[in-house]
Amino acid sequence: MWFEILCGLVVFRLLRRFFYDDDILEIETTDSDSKFLVASRIEKLYGGKVYLGLRIPDADTGSRQNIDMVLVTKGEAVVIAVKNFSGFVGIDADGSWVCTSKSKYKTERHPDPVVETKRQVAVLESYLEQRGVTLPEGYLSGKVVLPNPNCRTIHSISFPSEVISFDEWIQLKPEPKSMFSGWFKDAFRGEKKMYDAVHQKLHFVLSTAPVWDRLELKNNKNLLGEFMEFKGKQEDIQALRNTKRSKVSWLIIQKSAMFGLGRSKLQVLYSPRDYRNEGASVSEWKEVTVRHSTEVLFQPQNSNKVQKFKLSSIISMSLSA
C-alpha cells in the first residue's frame, strides 16, 4: 500500500512539473490578487478609473505611504484599503481589529484600518496640493473593503460606515451616474472649463505618482512589489542589459520561438520609458530573445523574501519610475 502511495506521489509530481510552472503553483491567493480583483470590480460597478498600488511621499515622515488604490469618478475620489482578513473579525477596546481563524482558532491583531485609511486620505490630499491639485472639501474620502469570503464580521459589534464587509461587498450594485456628478460641479459654480481642468490634472497626477512594480503571471496571478534583477546565463543577462528601470516601463513575454538547431527561446518585448507620459508607439518597442531558464527576482509587497520566477511563467511586468 505504501509503495503504491509513493508511486502515485512521484507520478503526480512529474505530471505537475511537466504541465505547470512550479513558481506559480507555490503562490497562494495573495493580498495583491485581492487588490486586482477589487479594482476590476469597482471599475465595473462605478465606472471611472482605479489607480492601483500607489506609494505616495509623506512629507511628515519622510517616507512613502502605501495606498492600495484610488477610485476617481466624475464626482469623487475614494481611497480604498483592501484587507484580505480571514476568520471572525471584531474590534477590541483599544480600537485594534482582532481576527480569529475559523479552523485553527488562531488570533491576530491589526491596527484599525479605518484610522489608517483616514491617514492615507490626508497624505494623498497633501501630495495633490503640492502638485497643484486643490480639491473641494469632502471630495476625497476613504473606504475599507473586506473581500475574503472566509471573513465574517461579528454582528454584535458596530463597524464604522467606512467598512464594507464581505456580505456587503458581494451585494454592491452599480450606482446611478447622477449620484456622482452633481455637487462637485456645483463647487465650481458651473464653470465647466475649471471643473474639467481640475479633473484632468487629478488624473495626470495620479497616473504619474510613484507606484509599486507589477508582475502579471499565468493562471491569473498578479503581484505588486519590487523588481530586483534578472538571473541566468551571461549571454541572456547581456541581452537584457537595456531593460533597466530608468529606461524601460513595460515588458511583455511572448511565446516561444525557434532559433537554430531546434532550440526554443523566449521573445521579450519592452517599451522605452517616456517621461512625457505619452507612451511609446508600437514602432518604438524593442525585442530581445533569451533562454527559458532566465529568471526574474521579485520581492512582493509586505514580504521580506525575494522570489524567483521563470520568464516562461510571466505574461508581463511593469516597472515604476
From TrEMBL:
Q: Which residues form the signal peptide?
A: 1-17
**Protein keywords:** Signal
Membrane-spanning intervals of the chain = none
Query: What InterPro entries has UniProt attached to this entry?
Result: NERD (IPR011528)
Q: Which residues form the NERD domain?
A: 30-147
Q: What is this protein called?
A: Uncharacterized protein LOC104585635
Species of the source: Nelumbo nucifera (Sacred lotus)
Specify the taxonomic lineage.
Eukaryota, Viridiplantae, Streptophyta, Embryophyta, Tracheophyta
